[in-house]
Design goal:
Strand order of the largest sheet: 1-8-7-6-5
CATH architecture of the largest domain: 7 Propeller
Oligomer: single chain
Structural class: mainly beta
Strand content: over 45%
Shape: globular
Number of domains: 2
Number of strands: 33
Largest sheet: 5 strands, antiparallel
CATH topology of the largest domain: Methylamine Dehydrogenase, Chain H
CATH superfamily of the largest domain: YVTN repeat-like/Quinoprotein amine dehydrogenase
């Protein structure tokens, strides 16, 4: 499904910093865009990069998370068994070590599995570890590692749902969503397993309407689940030409943004997932990041080696406002409140950083 993310976990933290060095990969041709509201050529952003501490590429990087309260980007690194927490203000990493790793076959190749996903909760971050099938708590402020809860199968996406004080985990191996009780933030408890009619991939929470969204990658569908009753409310066509991956939601405008392998599909949540707009970003899209307040979506396509930042209109049309060259195996972008973008580059074990579009 993906490669992992991380940099070591144990109750001991090593503060590791790296000096950013200019690193602008060769430009890839801009992708063809559909449903674009303007023909204006978008600006090209420049990159700088910061090396992941103690890591040498290629490494297993998957899902990363942005912690707005503390100005940090959480980067789980499978090979080093750690989570590298990048402090935006100081441009330096602190490392949470001690996560177990293992060798496992994936897509015909042996890979190092370890921490691979993270979500920010109520004073605690939760880290999924594919090596041990665990979800572990880490204190946001002190970065001290807490307890881990073992699941029946490996965790993929982990998502904190504030309204119910739960952590929802996509567990695609057995076609389910695994719900964890986070009412005591540092001590997760097993709560419920929701069987899904396929393998769930991606996660998004609509807190306004108390809905959880995920995709079924093996059936090319998008699933809508009621957060309170845990009932599956709807199943829509994702509209992807291949498998759907990440997903985002704009509750105020009733839009759902699905990440396909080669771009985005925008669906109308108020009309049973009817297709609205689309955007071609190049191949290799996995997860996406959406800022609903600014109506901006951030998409890193690893095979196309491109970052695309687009504005989503009220009718689901996508307007590209900036692009950038990245690198092969660079994917899963997040953005901070100032609009700077962070992309995990597994090939060279770096965090790529792009300034906000002007």
């Amino acid at each position: 499904m993906r490669a992992a993310i991380g940099c070591g976990l144990i109750l001991v933290l090593g503060a590791c910093s790296a000096t950013p060095t200019p690193s602008v990969p060769p430009l890839a041709p801009p992708p063809r865009a559909s449903s674009i509201a303007t023909a204006k050529v978008p600006p090209e952003l420049a990159a700088r990069s910061v090396e992941l501490p103690g890591a040498k590429g290629p490494v297993s990087l998957d899902l990363i998370a942005y912690d707005g309260a503390h100005g940090r980007v959480w980067v789980p690194v499978g090979d080093t068994g750690s989570v590298d927490v990048f402090d935006i203000g100081s441009s330096a990493f602190k490392r949470v070590d001690g996560f177990e790793t293992t060798q496992r076959e994936m897509h015909g190749q042996m890979r190092t599995m370890g921490p691979s996903s993270a979500t920010i909760g109520d004073g605690v971050a939760y880290v999924g570890n594919r090596a041990t099938n665990e979800v572990c708590a880490v204190a946001e402020k002190s970065l001290q590692r807490g307890t881990c809860l073992k699941l029946a199968t490996p965790a993929d996406f982990v998502t904190y749902v504030a309204a119910t004080k739960e952590v929802w985990v996509t567990t695609p191996k057995d076609g389910s969503l695994t719900l964890l009780d986070a009412s005591t933030p540092a001590a997760l408890k097993s709560k419920l397993v929701i069987k899904t009619p396929g393998s769930p991939e991606g996660s998004a929470v609509d807190a306004d309407h108390k809905l959880f969204y995920t995709n079924l990658e093996d059936t090319n569908q998008t699933l809508v689940v009621d957060i309170e009753s845990h009932a599956i409310k709807a199943t829509w066509s994702s509209g992807c030409s291949g498998a759907p991956h990440g997903i985002a939601v704009d509750p105020a405008r009733g839009l759902v943004i699905v990440a396909c392998s080669d771009g985005l599909r925008i669906l109308d949540a108020t009309h049973d997932g009817a297709a609205l707009g689309k955007l071609d970003t190049g191949d290799g899209v996995d997860d996406i990041f959406y800022n609903a307040a600014k109506r901006l979506v951030y998409v890193a396509a690893s095979n196309a080696k491109r970052l695309t930042i687009a504005k989503i209109g009220d009718k689901g049309q996508a307007t590209v406002i900036a692009t950038a060259a990245t690198a092969e195996r660079a994917r899963n972008a997040v953005a901070d409140t100032d609009g700077n973008t962070y992309v995990a580059d597994a090939a060279t074990a770096r965090l790529l950083i792009f300034g906000a579009p002007r």
